[in-house]
Amino acid sequence: MSKIDFQSVDDYISSKPDAAAATLELVRSAIRKALPKAEEVISYKMPAYRLRGEVILYFAGWKHHYSLYPAGPRLVAAFKDELASCTADKGTIRFPLSAPVPKKLIADIAKFRLMEVADRRKTSAITKGRA
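Below the sequence we write its predicted structure tokens.
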């Protein structure tokens, strides 16, 4: 994890080597299109997209890959075929920096996460209503 405290997603992306930064801009664009109402923030020293106070999705750039978080079992199962060329474990999806950015897949993952969060909120509201 970076030792730098980034002030913005622009700061985060500009701290990466040029090739990685270009890839991360494509990832960012795909997420922003999928989650247009989400607030773009830095959380845990990574770019994150927050809606109604809750982070929907994070991304991070590494030396040989970039990652999306969180990726729970439901999400990984839902995109099993599309993620065949990636590594998906321990709540993380890793995409190689050397491969083209799957913008549609990233957008679909962001929308899926939004649905997961919305479903969890509904369940929580129902549970609280019964208490």
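The first strand starts at residue 39 and ends at 43.
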